[in-house]
What does this fold into?
Amino acid sequence: MMVMSPRVRRLALTVHVTVSVGWLGAVSAFLALAIVGLVRHDFLIIRAMYVAMEILGWYVIVPLSFATILTGGVSSMGTTWGLFRHYWIVAKLFITIPATMILLVHMQPIGRAAAVVSGTSNGGGELGGLGIQLVAYAVFALFALIAATALSVYKPPGMTRYGWDRQQEQRTPS
Amino acid sequence: MGKPARYPGTPRWVYAFGAVLIGLVVIVIARHVLDGGFRGHGP
It folds into this structure.
């Protein structure tokens, strides 16, 4: 394993924290738009919200989710933390990778909602349960990302068997 | 030479986390099944 110098490690960590917290912030903004799109009855506002949600999704949330996985991988593999040595890092992987996959799958209904409101004069009515669905996705994503952030801050103890074995190997003089 | 240290085991919070994840997966699959999501959306 190549261990990064302290300067590079801090830079990698800064980028990782920036993009991952940015992802959380972008999802919060998405939730606000989804709620406004759901509760307001003014068609122009509804249309603006869903079009903004699609733009926010493709140009901010999706890139930040990939950047989070990439920078997280670089930060963990370039340090003694490793990617599969500590349970809290594995837990974060189990949050961010499925969250990104679910996000990509659900960008389709977001695009559909934007298309519906762009092509009709009564967008709110035609959206049906989609508006509620988008609010639910955003709330779920928000909780998942808060959990990932909390894991990074608290770093709950516990090494995987792989991590334990690697640690014992390093401690044993060859 | 001392005995090699024994692996201390998996902490409880990992099991709780795993249970929550499995619960979520079950809920998502159940929802899809109830909505007929896995039968496809034919013409």
The mean pLDDT of chain B is 81.
